[in-house]
Design goal:
- With about 575 residues, this protein is of the alpha/beta class.
- The chain has 15 helices and 17 strands.
- It has a seven-stranded mixed β-sheet, with helices on both faces. The chain has a two-stranded antiparallel ribbon with strand order 1-2. A two-stranded antiparallel sheet has the order 9-10.
- Helix 13 packs across helix 15.
- The longest helix has about 35 residues.
Length: about 575
């Protein structure tokens, strides 16, 4: 009777456990042997066909769901800021729009910023600052396909005006600024993920007219549209950025903190454009003056809005390929222009339509006619005006230098050659003369000839064909060609002329000097080898073909006397 009453009491306390087939397992009285099993069963009940019961694991499941929702939220947009050299505007717009992740790129180093009393590491930026960045080669400083957009802060206005240019109110300054922004937009496609946006911080047209560069004719919004960007609704508001964050570099100078902002910057606004990774279509007249190895560009056909060579101007194709295709299209006309005329009195063919003039909206990258009024004494080459530098202490690695052809020169030399060093002051030549007295480079002296102006480093000139070459062997190759032989046959007086004798003497002197330099170099190398005999074959380590000192049993050198053997 006592055992039956205890079992009934236990059944009232512990309900039967449900099973998967709808039955019930009778409860067992809790004893020391079954107490641990009952605890485990409460923590992990057997599943039933009905709705799941609430257990102690429910809060952890909710936490996992919240964590999954957090991971599923889209990451913040990443925008690269170019042109903010003192990082003040980048810090201000980061505070105004914390949901966007801005990364600043400056041409200055940390030491340069500290010299201007500027914090090189703004706390709000979270370390997202790139120093000593060439703005025209941002793809080499940042990871590719890592940004959703680009922000240009007063592009081109922070750099000092070149001394050769003088003042920023000239059309050449507008061309310099347009070309600078064109290369930024072209090279920034490497760091763009896909289709994004370009944000341009630029003063309005009315206030820009009163700026020091107002008379130059800078049309920055039109240039951005020319590069394939479409205007969109503005994303950022300039009024949300504090006035203390708007103190930019202007023409190489930084305003003091207590200085008043120039009046022409009071109407500055942030314009937004759609931006993608498609190539930029440029007219043929502009493409002929650019470096042929640039990318993300293609040639636009005259009179067409759409780009006809977009298939050939893909992201991985250089401008050189597009130029070759254009030359193939004009091959017949080029033959007609340059073929020899049967009669001297025959009129020259018309070349006016060979390179069409750019349309009204495509002339932003055309070199202004002002360049033809500038003398070579003031501007030796147009590339001298295309260096972008803020101060003399700026690192050389971040100084953007653009290569273009100077239309004043008849050759396709992008840059003038450096001035040759004098032999009397060259220490290397002095050493070679001391080691090789029989091959003294100063013995051969060039005869006195009339000083002729060299065009783009072309030293040798043929008066018969009016052709210039850069070396003597190239001139020899030209004189063996059909053009030279045909014109020499048509000019009987050429073979006995003084001009031909002068040309041949120039070639002989250049070839003799080159041969003498080769012999002197060979003597110098032989003297250096004699002074260091251990540097021959097997000299390093003694494991080559060198013979080590023989041991007592004619054994080979095992490393005990390395570098002491005779080199073969």
């Amino acid at each position: 009777a006592i055992e039956a009453s205890a079992a009934a009491a236990a059944a009232a306390v512990e309900p039967p456990i449900a099973t998967g087939n709808g039955g019930a397992v009778p409860a067992v009285p809790p004893t020391e042997s079954t107490m641990e099993v009952n605890v485990v069963e409460r923590r992990a009940p057997v599943p039933t066909d009905g709705p799941p019961a609430t257990t102690a694991e429910t809060p952890s499941v909710a936490g996992k769901a919240a964590a999954a929702a957090t991971l599923a939220s889209p990451p913040p947009k990443k925008i690269l800021v170019v042109g903010d050299e003192n990082l003040l505007f980048s810090a201000g717009i980061q505070e105004a729009y914390p949901e966007v992740e801005f990364t600043a790129a400056t041409v200055l180093s940390r030491h340069n910023l500290e010299a201007y009393n500027i914090d090189p590491i703004p706390p709000v930026m979270g370390g997202r600052v790139g120093y000593m960045v060439d703005p025209c080669r941002v793809g080499k400083h940042f990871q590719q396909h890592s940004f959703d957009g680009l922000l240009l802060f007063l592009p081109g206005l922070s750099f000092a005006v070149p001394q050769e240019l003088g003042t920023p109110d000239r059309p050449l300054f507008a061309y310099r600024t347009h070309l600078f922004v064109f290369h930024i937009l072209r090279h920034a496609k490497l760091v763009l993920k896909g289709e994004g946006q370009v944000h341009l911080v630029w003063p309005d047209a009315v206030n820009l007219m009163t700026a020091p560069c107002g008379a130059a004719g800078i049309e920055m919004p039109k240039l951005v549209e020319f590069c394939g960007c479409e205007p969109q609704e503005r994303r950022f508001d300039m009024s949300k950025i504090g006035a203390h964050c708007f103190r930019p570099f202007l023409f190489g100078e930084l305003a003091l903190p207590q200085a008043v902002i120039p009046e022409w910057l009071t109407g500055t606004e942030v314009l937004t454009f759609r931006y993608d990774r498609s190539p930029i279509a440029i007219p043929l007249s502009v493409a002929l003056l650019l470096h042929p190895d640039v990318g993300f560009v293609c040639i636009k056909e005259a009179g067409k809005e759409s780009n006809a060579s977009s298939a050939a101007g893909a992201a991985g194709v250089q401008l050189r390929t597009c130029l070759v295709q254009e030359a193939a299209k004009l091959k017949d006309k080029l033959k007609e222009i340059y073929r020899p005329r049967e009669k001297p009195e025959q009129e020259a063919p018309d070349v006016s339509g060979l390179v069409p003039d750019p349309a009204d909206g495509d002339g932003l990258l055309a070199i202004p006619n002002e360049i033809f009024t500038v003398s070579f004494d003031n501007v030796p080459h147009l590339s001298a005006l295309l260096k972008f530098q803020i101060c003399d202490e700026q690192p050389q690695v971040s100084i953007a230098s653009l290569d273009v052809l100077d239309p004043r020169l008849p050759t396709r030399i992008a840059r003038p050659p450096p001035p040759p060093a004098r032999a009397a002051t060259n220490p290397f030549l002095a050493v070679m003369n001391a080691l090789a007295p029989n091959f003294n480079l100063n013995v051969l002296k060039k005869r006195k000839t009339p000083a002729l102006e060299e065009w783009g480093g072309m030293k040798f000139y043929c008066p018969l064909t009016k052709i210039c070459t850069i070396s003597a062997d190239r001139m020899r190759m030209h004189m063996e060609g059909d053009m030279y032989k045909r014109m020499a046959a048509e000019t009987p007086s050429w073979n006995d002329s003084a001009e031909r004798r002068e040309l041949l003497q120039d070639l002989e002197e250049a070839e003799a000097l080159e041969e003498q330099q080769k012999r002197a170099k060979m003597v110098l190398n032989a003297a250096a080898s004699a002074a260091n005999p251990g540097l021959g074959k097997g000299g390093k380590g003694g494991k080559g073909k060198s013979k080590g000192i023989k041991g007592g049993n004619n054994s080979k050198d095992n490393g005990g006397d390395r570098n002491r053997g005779d080199s073969k």
